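Exercise 7. Given the components listed, write out the predicted structure of the assembled complex. Treat all entries as one system.
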Amino acid sequence: MFKSLIFIAGLLLASQSAQAALNVLACEPEWAALTEELAGDKARVTSATTAFQDPHHVQARPSLIARARNADLLVCTGAELEIGWLPLLQRQSGNARLQSGLPGSFEAAQHVALLEKPSRLDRAQGDIHPDGNPHLISDPRNLLKVAVALTQRLAELDPANAAYYAARNHDFQKRMGLAIARWEKQAAGLRGVAVVVHHKNWVYLADWLGLSIVADLEPKPGIDPSVSFLSSLLEHQKARPARMILHAAYQSPKPGEWLAEHAGIPTVELPYTVGGSPAAHDLFGLYEDTVMKLKEAMK
Amino acid sequence: MFKPTLFAAALAAVLPMPALAVSDADIAALRGEFEQKLKDLQAVYEARLQEMEGRLAKSNEGVNAARATADPAVPAPANGNAFNPEISLILQGGYVNRKAGTRLPTGYLQDAAITAPSRGFSLNDTELVVAANIDPYFRGSTNIVLHDDQASIEEAWFQSLSLDHGFTLKGGRYISGIGYQNEQHPHAWDFVDNNLMYQTLFGEHLVQDGLQLKWLAPSDTFVEFGAEVGNGAAFPGSAVDRNGAGDWAAYVHVGDDLGNSQSWRAGLSYLSARPLDRASLVTDTAGIAANTRFSGSSNTWIADFVWKWAPEGNPKDRNFKFQSEFFQRDEGGDLLNDVKTGGYHGKQTGYYAQGVWQFMPSWRAGLRYDRLNHGGIDYGTNNATLLPAAYDPTKWSLMTDFSPSEFSQFRLQWARDHAMSGNPDDKQLSLQYIYSLGPHGAHNF
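Answer.
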């Protein structure tokens, strides 16, 4: 009975294989944007989350399960960023193509050298990720590496358009490479600038632009800042003054504003991903806006 | 660093003197070879030096900055642990202040296994969950509930991963997909205790030994159909030694988003069981709990609805969840009371509705109302001793909880329990802790 079910499923699969465009479900807006850059009109792309949602805390909503049901490819960050909801989409969608390890499941973190790989796994350290910090999107140089791997994956799933994807990747690499050089030049004055962050999602940005992270509003990753902890940061600020406080569009500005007010430094809301600010309408706008907002805060 | 010229001179001195007859060209060739070797040596030394400098720099960077210098295109090798099953442990317990004794809602045939809830300090279910993908085709999971003197297998199932086309097959012992709250483990409940509806229908929740097939329609709206066959050993069925299925269930769930901030799911489920000599405690006219045995058919409809709201769909700081379920249970057959067997027919309804509001990070408050309608009960010839009660059990519960992190939760609950006719008002105060250790799996919507 089970075998015949598989057989019927196989027949159905064979009959449907002649499909027009790849159906891609991206876990976060940045991967939707990157897939669109590489696949153009050869893919129908939607994002499971918006820039105003914390990718750690998304629920496996019925609508997401329904979208996973019809997807040919999942493009996600990986490194356990989506551990609270992505496994449910994979298991409940009844879609064999999206299971981990298959071509239909793409994880960006596998193609980038992750920072902050913990030497000790202990929840007393907060909500840490064993594979390293998954917020790799804040460094555009990572994007170039992910784009190469994603192009290969698109070609694997849709060999007929392999040359098309390769050409678009070539073009993207060129434009993004030039843009990165321009942003690095513009952000030269940010090297060594001390910043306070809200959660560890700016580690890669700091690594890219040479910012120096001197404190985190969260006492431990994933633990909300308390008043007493913020007060201790204020003391810290006197000893090692920071120039600004960074938080993502999806995070509450309140803890940062409290510290900003008491320490007399500005808070900067960065888009973090595509759609996080009006200017961050695509990947280029995202980093452009990030660099501009950082420079503005320096004035 | 050594000087190349010095090195060359030393080498030249060591080398045997060339014969006088050698031509200038030969000397030039030799010198070329010489210099090439020299360069090679230098390159090796430079590389070694650089490597050593690199190592030094790296060790200075400390743990945080330790960055993989390997080709990032090659995924880091998974460590040996990665293949082990995900193991997690749930610790629960608390303190309850309430009246003594069992408080079964009046007028309902219920699972005889429901015991009096403990008072004072107590340890609640300790759950051990072990789960893993078995191979590319199946996932397996088990949930073992540990008590003082026994361990019970709450769940032990396999689930298909590769059926595709929206199909998922589950088999073994699993929590039935009927209703909404049914699939939630007690540690995922929003209140300390179960609602009266689920307690009355299933004891805790319906667990099946059998097979479940689900199919998700290929539409953008979530439409899921499910069908189950089981041995029907769990209430409202009973353990019967027979071939074939003891119960079957079918359900449909529909859900979607409304903009970015709202999402919902609604469902309709049907469960049909054939219990034989199913034990229930019924309070008789003298106020004494009488042991009854029911044989016949038990059919239940459940309608469920859940609606969630979070600003921009980000539940981190604030969110609201409303859930409500309604049931109708129709049971007909024979009821044995003491030694007298009579006909029995009961058609009863009930519902609960609850709202939980997270008003700031880590803090939530919730209100729940439970109600069972006595409906029509006919004990047949037993009507003389088992007077059908004209009483509608209700209960109000108010709770607040605090979660220092995703893995710990403390809850305070105040309830007015009017489930029992004749002893209607039980004021219950509960304190509860829930801890989750290990890689705790994601929760359903």
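Discussion: Chain B has a mean pLDDT of 85. The first helix of chain B runs from residue 4 to 14.
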